[in-house]
Each structure stands twice: as C-alpha cells, then as structure tokens.
Specification:
- It is a single chain.
- The protein has 797 residues and is an alpha+beta fold.
- It is built from 17 helices and 39 strands.
- Strands 4, 5, 6, 12, 13, 14, 15, 16 and 17 form a 9-stranded mixed beta sheet that branches. Strands 1, 2, 8, 9, 10, 11, 18 and 19 form an 8-stranded mixed beta sheet that branches.
- The radius of gyration is 27 Å and the shape is globular.
- Bound molecules: flavin-adenine dinucleotide.
- Flavin-adenine dinucleotide binds next to α1, β12, β17 and α8.
- InterPro entries: FAD-dep_OxRdtase, FAD/NAD-bd_sf, FAO_M, GcvT/YgfZ/DmdA, GcvT/YgfZ_C, GcvT_C, GCVT_N, TrmE/GcvT-like.
Length: 797
C-alpha cells in the first residue's frame, strides 16, 4: 500500500534534487526522524539528473572551499555507509592558465586551498599535458593540479542519501506537488499538496529553478532565475581510455572531461540565455531544452582549439539543461527575512552537486540549531535588496552571472547588468566629480573619484592607486567627505527602547541621550549577528546605523526579538543622508558653515546643529582615523549640505579610500573580520561589551572570557611596497599556516601594504611572518593594534 502523507511533520523538504536529498539526509542524521520530502515528479527529475556533477574544491572564499571539501568527504564515504554506489570517481582536476592573470587567480585559489588542508599544487604546462595528452598545451602557461577532486553520479548520490535518510525515519513522497504554503503571523504553518495538507514547523525550500515562485507562496523574496546551460557529448574518441581528470580551461570558458569513452565539453559562455518563469512548468520532468548550435558555436571554436581531436569526433548531443542563478553568483541558504520557518536551499549557480553535500549539511544544521555549522553569511538568504527580486533585473543579471562563473577574481570588479537600481541623494554630484561607481545592496556608491576611463582589471597596483591616494591625503591633510548614506538606519522608539536594546545589544546602550554607542549584536553563542552604531536621540528614541547590506537581516533579527517590548522599529534608511566629514580642516569647515560649537562636542557624542542653514545631527566619531563628524540630514537636504561643505574646501572620497584608512586603523568590519564564527573577545572588541551581562550571548561570552579566550586579530605591514594583498591570503610563520588575511589595502598614510588577519596561534608584536599572495611569500611584520596612530589622538578632539 502506498505510504500516505502524515498530517504533521516537523520539517517538510520540498524538492527531490541534490539539495532536497542532502538536506533530508542531514536532518535525519541530526535526529529529525519525522522529516518528509515532497517531490512533485520523480526524485532528481529537475536539474540534478543531467548534471555533469563535477566536484572541484578550488574556490575564492574559505567557507565555500570548506563546504565543498565536506561534499568530497561525504561522497567518498556514502557508498560504504549505504551500500548504494554513488559513482564517485576521484581522478582529480586540472586548472590550466593561458594568461598571467589566470595563473595568479588559480594560484590564489591554490594558496587558499592549502590553508584548509586541500591538496593543490602548481604544475608546469608540460606536466599538465602529460596528465591530459589530448589537450593542445601550446598556449598553456601553467596549471594547478588538485588530486582529490572528482565527480559523482548525481542520481546515485541522491538515491544513497535518500536510502540512508529513510533508514533513520525520513519519508519521501514523489508525485506530490506543493500547491500552497500556509503561514500565520509571518510563520510557516504547513503545506498544501496535490495529495492533501501537511502541517509543519519548518520548510526547506529546495525547489531549484522553481524556488522564486514557491517562495512567493509564502510571501518571501527568492531572487533566482534559470538560464540555459550547455554541454556537448561525443561518441568514443581514440585516446580516451578509462576515467580522466576534469580539465578546466576557464580562459576559454570551458570544462572538459571524459564520458563513456567520449568527451563532455561544458561551457559558461560570457552571456547566458535566461529562461522566463513559467516557461518550464511541472511537465518538465527529466526534461531538456532544445540544442542551440548558434549560441554554442563560439564555445565550440574554443573547444576545437583546446582539443584538436574534437575535429573528427562524432557528436552525440548538445545537452541544454536549465540551472538557476542569483544576482551575485552565490546560492541562498538559511531562513528568509520575510517568513519564519521558511529556509532556502536554492539558487545553486551551477555548483549544486559540488556544494550539495556541504550545503545540505549546513541547511539542516540551520533548521535544527538556528545557525549554519560555520559562517556562511556570503550565502545568507537575507542578503539581497528587495529590488533584486524584480523579474526585469533578474532577466538581465542571471545571464551575466552565468558568464562570470569562470571569471578571474580581479579586485574591484563590477557587474554590468541590473545597475543604477538605487541612487544616493548625491548621485548627480558624485558623477559630476568623476565617481567610479560600485554596486552595494543595489546602491551605486563611489569607489573612487577622478575617473577618466574604465579601469583595467589587474592584480598589480590598480589604475585607481593614485586617485585613492589623493583622497586619503585629502582626509589626512585637509578634509574629505565619505558618503555613508546607504548605511541601514533603524529607528527604535517606545518606552522600552532602552530595555530592548540592552537585551539585543552587548554594548552600553543605557548611556544618556546625546551619546553615540558602538555595539555588537550577538546570538546566544556570543558570536556576531551584526555590529552597529547607535545614536541615542532621546530617552525613548535610538537611531541605529548598520551595514549597507545588513539592513534586511538586522531588521529581521530585531523584530524577532521584540516580542514583549513596547517599541516600534522603522527602517529609515532612505529618509536620511549621512556625510562623514573627516580631516584636520573639518573643524574650520564646520565653523565656517555656522556651527563652531561642534568643535566642543566630545568623542562618541552627538547633537543637533545647523550647517549652512541645514539641520544636521552631528556625531563625533571616525571610521578612518581622522577627526570629524558623521552628519545626518534629510536626504532631500544633502545636495545643499554637500555644496556648502565642498565650497568650504572638502572633497569627496570613495569606498576604496575608506577601506584603506579603516585597515590602517585596525577597525574590524562585518563580513571581513567579524562574522558568526567570531566573538567580540576573539575580535579584540571586548572593551565595548557590558561585563554586567543581561544581553543575548552574555553567558557564552562570560564562559569564553573565563576560559582565557583572546583576540585573534592582528595587523600586518608588508615589507614590499609593491605587493598587493587582497584578503583571503594564508599567513605563514615558518612553514606553518597560522592564519589568513581578512581585509587588505595599500596604507597610504604608512606607505606600505597593510592587512588585518585572523590567526590561530598567538603572535608577538614585531614578529615576522609571510603572506602568501598567489604562492609568492611576502615578508610582513605583526602589529598588535592599529598601524596608524595607535593612540587614536588624531581622531579625538
Ligand atoms: C548542464 C548542467 C551541468 C551541470 N554541471 C554541474 C557540475 O559539473 N557540478 C556541479 O556542482 N553542478 C553542476 N550543475 C548544477 C547542478 O546540477 C545543480 O546546481 C543542482 O542539480 C541543482 O539541484 P537542486 O536540488 O537545487 O534543484 P533540482 O535538481 O532542480 O531539484 C528541484 C526539485 O524540486 C521539484 N519541485 C519544484 N517545484 C515543486 C513543487 N511545487 N512541489 C514539489 N516539488 C517541486 C522539482 O521537480 C525538482 O525535482 C550543472 C547543471 C546543468 C544544467
């Protein structure tokens, strides 16, 4: 008798591709014995069944690398665990470079892989040719060899995961499509299906390219869209005997491997083909899209160059399958901001098989424990501005993201599509001043000024080096304006405002009105959910300033902890502009603009004032290490304020100048030094934490403090002024990797490249270490504090 749907399940996994199967398996492993998986067709019948299923660990970020490493471990042990073969073939992968920048790119990835114990080594073009004799290696400059990479049979992996999950109590329902999602007060209650209703506490949404429409059923934004993705299959070719490594020829947009004695040649062409929602519906079961030889032709030419044997090969088919892409090329994992209990595991950007093992593990961990197994904020389901859920923007952006899959990770690189979505109040002024814009959370922000042409992407000193230097010099010697308008701004108002913030923030939130308070917002593990600056405007009113991209996430966190407090929370981000006026001449400028009294304002104090007749709230603080104020005014008044400040001698400065100055000052930033694996103690920010407790995370912090946990953040100054560290580089002491850089820049005020790094062993002031920049070990000196103005005298009045 067919199994019937239960009336209740604690977790409903929707979708039976790799993400759904892996999530179900890991839920079962974590003891959720009543989880069910609903698949409207047959398991794997969406995208997973036709995946090329390569598992390649080299990535640009530490935790995505770590996650794929987990997948490798899982896939290599599943057969033993379940008795079900998964077709795991561990023949390694070969990444070739045909230009110097690609060589740098793959060597940077190799360096990062080594930091995680992944075997990856540089080899010569000749050795690469030995490993792939069919390849034309004439233009190959070098390669990285990763022996542990492999590939799987996607359907068999899913079968093994499901078999193990069933053994632990999970149940699978095929031919059971979800037709509606039930919510109550913004919380998941259940699902309606073609076979009846199931009440549940949580949903894991693993519905691949259909996730945006499923998310909408629950009122959540899921900005992902499918594109066509191609690989060519040939009949057997002489010279292919047995399994070979995967060959990555990313300069030619190709991945290549053997398949049943022939070749499989896949591509990420520069601009993909988007698929509008609705085109592929539930009848698309084990479906494929039509061949498109015109579109594939340039890639075919590239393939013929790399593999001359293709010339005479017989083509079996040009497979065209759909795959979903997100606005930034990373998948979405975790609970949505809009709907409690709705967890996303989708938008896999063509690495669903490689990531699936680790992503499913992290998603299950998130559902069961409330957080991923390690920080995955780069994949956070709450990271996209609502504007990105627009279909028009997705139709433009998704094909570009497909094309960037094999891009070289140049510093400062910007996407071209779906731009100009959100303009700063001073957008026109900045463009008139020659701003080169970068997109953050949909906002166009000046990266640097004095733009004369598009910068040439490179790993050496960038085109903007002198522009940024001039902006730093202005802030250091005269006065510069740093635009902080896109910072998330949240008004916390009501009679319980202080009590609420004392609960959700670790800082001294009970300081008097007129104060500025820097605070960490922690979870109950004592690690960072966010860090923010609060201005206490009155006894019952605070304005919180949080990261530009953190607003959705922070609003969700605050709202979810507001129950029982008499407060209101309002997102006022767009109502106000914030101009950071910084530098030794800032004092003269505010006096000339009619507010000399601001010079009497103490550090971390704020007050109302009028500058050139415009009401501002001036807060005395500095993120760049020079004296000044962050001036908040109505967005509509920003042009007049800017005109007055620039007429008095201030010049605009961009984000690159700010980052350089921040790193010299050793100020930690969310997403760089601070994340959900870091506590204020390990980040060296315990001074800003209330030792009296009473806030979320206090117990965990007290325990960590008692056990002698210490700061792990150090500053590094590199000897070689020409070296260009970018962050994510291993740090060596002797032959051992002792840490990794988290932010890096050229420090114009000290005249040397500078980095912040998290280290796992204590390092002493002045100790000598090496930073691995694309396998070149650069000497550096450790400083246990800011490398510029350690006493902070320049920024305090
Ligand atoms: C040509 C090609 C080659 C690729 N090669 C690689 C590779 O080499 N390495 C790699 O890592 N990745 C690769 N990928 C990507 C990888 O295959 C995908 O990322 C992955 O398979 C996506 O899995 P998923 O579980 O997210 O989605 P899917 O496999 O699409 O699963 C989603 C499931 O949800 C079901 N569903 C949808 N709506 C409902 C509903 N209302 N109710 C119930 N069920 C529903 C669907 O029927 C479907 O089965 C490739 C992709 C393509 C197209």
């Amino acid at each position: 008798m067919a199994d019937s749907l239960p009336s209740h399940a604690s977790v409903v996994v929707i979708g039976g591709g790799i993400m759904g199967c892996s999530t179900l398996y890991h839920l079962a492993k974590l003891g959720v014995s009543d989880a069910i998986l609903l698949e409207r067709n047959a398991l794997t019948s969406g995208t997973t069944w036709h995946s090329a299923a390569q598992v390649r660990a080299l990535r640009n970020s530490q935790n995505l690398t770590r996650m794929i490493q987990y997948s490798v471990d899982l896939y290599s042990r599943l057969e033993k665990e379940t008795g079900q073969s998964v077709g795991w073939i561990q023949k390694g992968s070969l990444s070739i470079a045909t230009n110097p920048d690609r060589l740098t790119h793959i060597k940077r990835q190799e360096a990062l892989a080594r930091a995680y114990g992944i075997d990856a080594r540089s080899i010569s073009a000749a050795e690469a040719k030995e490993r792939w004799p069919l390849m034309n290696a004439d233009d190959v400059l070098g390669a990285v060899w990763s022996p542990d990479d492999g590939r799987v049979s996607p359907s068999d992996v899913c079968a093994a995961l499901v078999k193990a999950a069933k053994g632990l109590g999970a149940r699978i329902f095929e031919r059971t499509g979800v037709t509606g999602i039930l919510t109550e007060n913004g919380r998941i209650k259940g699902v309606e299906t073609s076979q009846g209703t199931v009440m549940c506490d949580a949903i894991a949404l693993c519905t691949g390219l259909w996730s945006r429409e499923l998310g909408a059923m629950a009122g959540a934004e899921v900005p992902a869209l499918a594109c066509e993705h191609f690989y060519l299959l040939t009949k057997p070719i002489a010279g292919i005997a047995g399994n070979m490594p995967t060959l990555s020829d990313h300069d030619n947009h190709l991945y290549i491997r053997d398949d049943s004695g022939g070749l499989l040649v896949g591509c990420f062409e520069p601009m993909g083909k988007p698929i509008a929602p609705g085109v592929l519906n539930e009848s698309f079961e084990f479906g494929l899209l039509p061949e498109d030889w015109d579109h594939f032709e340039p890639m075919m030419m590239n393939a013929l160059h790399r593999l001359p044997a293709l010339e005479t090969a017989e083509v079996k088919m040009l497979l065209n399958g759909p795959e979903s892409f997100t606005p930034d090329g990373t998948f979405m994992l975790g609970e949505t901001a809009e709907t409690r209990g709705l967890f996303l595991g989708c938008g896999m950007n063509s690495v669903g098989m490689a990531s699936g093992g680790g992503a499913g593990m992290n998603l299950a961990h998130c559902i069961v424990h409330g957080h991923t197994a390690y920080d995955l904020s780069e994949a956070d389901a709450k990271r996209f501005a609502p504007v990105f859920n627009s279909l028009d923007h997705l139709m433009a952006r998704a094909p570009e993201i497909l094309g960037t899959h094999y891009d070289i990770a140049y510093p400062g690189k910007q996407l071209k599509t779906a731009r100009n979505l959100r303009a700063l109040p001073l957008d026109a002024e900045y463009r008139a001043a020659g701003a080169h814009m970068g997109q953050v959370y949909g906002w166009e922000r000046p990266l640097y000024f004095g733009k004369t042409s598009e910068p040439t992407p490179r790993f050496e000193r960038p085109d903007w080096f002198t522009n940024v230097g001039a902006e730093v010099r202005a802030a250091h010697e005269k006065a510069a304006i740093f635009d902080a308008s896109p910072f998330g701004k949240i008004e916390v108002e009501g009679k319980d405002a202080e009590a609420f913030l004392m609960r959700v923030c670790a800082g001294h939130m009970n300081r008097k009105p007129g104060s500025v308070i820097y605070t960490a917002m922690l979870n109950d593990r004592g690690t960072f959910e966010s860090d923010l600056t609060a201005q206490r405007l009155g006894p019952d009113h605070y304005r919180l300033f949080t990261g530009t991209a953190a607003i959705k996430r922070d609003m969700a966190w605050l709202s979810r902890h507001a129950e029982g407090f008499d407060i209101t929370l309002t997102d006022s981000t767009e109502a106000y502009a914030v101009l950071g006026l910084m530098g030794p001449e800032a004092a003269r400028i505010v006096a000339e603009c009619g507010a000399p009294e601001l010079n009497e304002l103490g550090y971390f104090r704020q007050t109302g004032a009028h500058l050139a007749g415009i009401h501002v709230r001036a807060a005395r603080l500095s993120y760049v290490g020079e004296a000044g104020w962050e001036l908040t005014c109505k967005a509509t008044n920003a042009p007049a304020l800017y005109a007055a400040l620039t007429a008095a001698g201030a010049v605009p400065a961009g984000m690159f100048a700010q980052t350089s100055m921040r790193v010299e000052k050793g100020f930690c930033a969310m997403g760089h030094e601070l994340d959900s694996d870091m506590t204020p103690i390990t980040a060296g920010l315990d001074f800003a934490v209330r030792k009296s407790g009473g806030f979320i995370g206090a117990e965990a912090l007290a325990a960590a403090r008692a056990s002698g946990t210490r700061s792990v953040i150090v500053s590094l100054v590199l000897d070689d002024a020409e070296a260009v560290p970018l962050g994510h580089e291993p740090v060596y002491r002797g032959d051992s990797i002792v840490g990794k850089t988290s932010s890096a820049a050229f420090g114009y005020r000290i005249g040397k490249p500078v980095a912040l790094a998290a280290v796992k062993v204590p390092l002493a002031e002045g100790e000598r270490v090496k930073v691995d920049i694309a396998r070149r070990l650069c000497d550096a000196t450790v400083t246990l504090g800011p490398v510029f103005d350690p006493s902070g005298s320049r920024m305090k009045p």
